[in-house]
Amino acid sequence: MESNLLSGPITVPSPVALGDTGAEVHPLGLGGSLFGWTLGTEDSERVLDRFVGSGGSLVDTADSYAAGRSESIIGRWMASRHARDRVIITTKVGRGPEHPGLRPDAIVAAVDESLARLRTDRIDLLMLHGEDPATPLEESLGAVGALIEAGKVRALGAADLSPERLIEARVLAANGLPRLQALTTEYSLMRRRGFEGATELVAHAQALAVLPYFALANGFLGGNVRRRSDAPRDARGARMLTHLGRRGHRVLAALDDIAFRRGCEPATVALAWLLARPTVVAPIVGVSRPEQVDAVLAAASILLARSEIVELDRASA
Q: Ranges for the NADP-dependent oxidoreductase domain (predicted)?
């Protein structure tokens, strides 16, 4: 049954450009890593209904998420809701179980299978999932160039590329190969060092649209895990527990303080901090329940004061 949440026009507040792709998206993206893993098909579809029905548009997945089940769930949802033109789909290739690595043949085969699972004729933003030391970057970019010419891919991005590889990619693009438009990398109040510094400088210089993943530190910044006994007994809960400690409690206290003053959720403030970073276009957030979507999308309406940003910077330093 088609959801009535998707009927009628949708107004997207404050759309942002996704690099030079020509696409504009809501500045909060929905991560599909939980689809087919901790969320079944029906629960995943309810999350997607709430996200798109509330104005969200960027949906992120990968061929490696739940061995392709995440893409299949998104594809089934898009088909049943007739929603393909309402979303911007980004998926990643390079770590899938069937076609690992970034050899040209692996990329082409992985993209074809992703298209089949997603039940679509194009991928809006294809991400190279990490680095493949065994394959020259020039060959990988050339394969994507052919897919762009064929209309199967509209734009190219990368996940977790080093500053050196980003620079190499830009040099190759100057010689006619596809240019990277976006970078997805882990970045949050609890994980700052891996991005801030050289990677951030290169991303800014290349005008890359930065799409941070684990933007809520596996859910820790939602504020529901304050003691070890609060964490769920699964892989995600184990990741949350790595953030417990003096620094984690400082960050949660700062989020609590600002959230109380603003009348919103701590997660909303944590995402608003990311959106205040000059290179960040749209944090990617996974949610477990439809009602959590509201706190995520609300971050686009929060403009933190300079004093609040400094407070969070100090707490997370």
A: 27-315
**Residue 1 and residue 77: Cα distance in Å, rounded?**
11
H-helix segments, the chain:
41-53, 69-81, 104-118, 137-149, 163-174, 198-205, 235-241, 246-262, 266-275, 292-297, 306-316
CA 114 to chain centre: 17
Domain extent for 48: 4-316
Phi, psi of 301 (to 5 degrees): -100, 5
Classify burial at 114, counting beta carbons within 10 Å of its beta carbon; exposed 0-12, middle 13-18, buried 19 or more. Answer: buried
- Report d(CA 40, CA 103) in Å as an integer: 32
DSSP 226-243: SSGGGS-SSHHHHHHHTT
Pairing status of strand 24-25 against strand 16-17: antiparallel
Strand partners, 211: 184
Token output for 147: 């897919």
pLDDT, tens digit, 9 for 90 and up, residues 236-272? 777 777 888 899 999 999 999 999 999 999 999 999 9
CATH classification of the domain holding 29: 3.20.20.100
DSSP state at residue 22: S
Q: Which region holds residue 90: left if phi is over 0, alpha if psi is between -120 and 50, else beta?
A: beta
pLDDT digits (tens, 9 = 90+) for 152-193: 999 999 999 999 999 999 999 999 999 999 999 999 999 999
Q: Are strands 180-186 and 16-17 parallel, antiparallel or unpaired?
A: unpaired
Q: Measure the CA–CA gap between 221 and 98, rounded to whole angstroms.
A: 34
Task: Report residue 278: phi and psi, to 5°.
Answer: -65, -25
pLDDT at 243: 83
Q: Indicate yes or no: pTM above 0.85.
A: yes
41-53 helix and 69-81 helix, angle to the nearest 10 degrees = 60
Domain count for the chain:
1
Distance between CA atoms of residues 302 and 3, nearest Å = 29
